[in-house]
Amino acid sequence: MNVLWVLAHPEARSLSGALRDDSIQTLRNLGHDVRESDLYAMKWNPVVDATDYGAEAADERLQVAAASARAYAGGTLSPEIVAEQEKLAWADAVVVQFPLWWFGVPAILKGWIDRVFVKGFAYGLSGDDGRTLHYGEGRLAGKRAMAVVTGGASEAALGPRSINGSLDDLLFSLQHGTFFYTGMSVLPPYAVYGADRVSPEQFNEARDGLRERLRTLETTQPLPYRSRNGGDYDETMVLKEAHVPGETGFSIHLR
């Protein structure tokens, strides 16, 4: 299995860095091929601008979706973007590892998504019948994706009745709005709570738990998100009332 590991943490000597190092060795010991995108080590530029799309785009009023689609089709995307797209195309599974900052992903990771997942490559595709291919379909369909998250809060403080909101809700935009939107099958996330206060024993427990998740990377059941074109949604992309009637919220999009 080809695995792309994307890390968004500024300190290689951190808990996240130690888990990344052990995980990559674990994957290789299991016979998988691994490529990395260590965004801070790469000094990844998270800012979208016209220079991403070639000289022609720099002379025009920038409309990001249209400009990125033209650049992808015309082969004028910046080389660093193309390199990351080639890694994604190569991968059978994508592991995205990050600390939870301000209830979301670090800016550098959001910027990696913004610059790499361009129209024509990751979205904006249509099937032979004219249907838009997203939410379970698309170029990245058939790939598996998993988030590995470290958070300073306790597990209870990121639970379903927490003032912070549940971890599942905080990750919805990444897991459903990026991974699943582009066609990938989304595995349950792996979370390490209280990351700033982890004892050696707790680190060993977190490491071993992640090792087990990696051993089952090919077989773990994905989250059962409803596909856009599977019949559950109407023409306005609203869930039909026959499904979980009267309910709202992120959970209604799970079967």
Automatic annotation (TrEMBL):
This is NAD(P)H-dependent oxidoreductase. It comes from Streptomyces tendae. SUPFAM superfamilies: Flavoproteins. Belongs to the NAD(P)H dehydrogenase (quinone) family. Residues 1-214 form the Flavodoxin-like fold domain. Pfam families: Flavodoxin_2. It comes from the Bacteria. Keywords: Oxidoreductase, Plasmid.
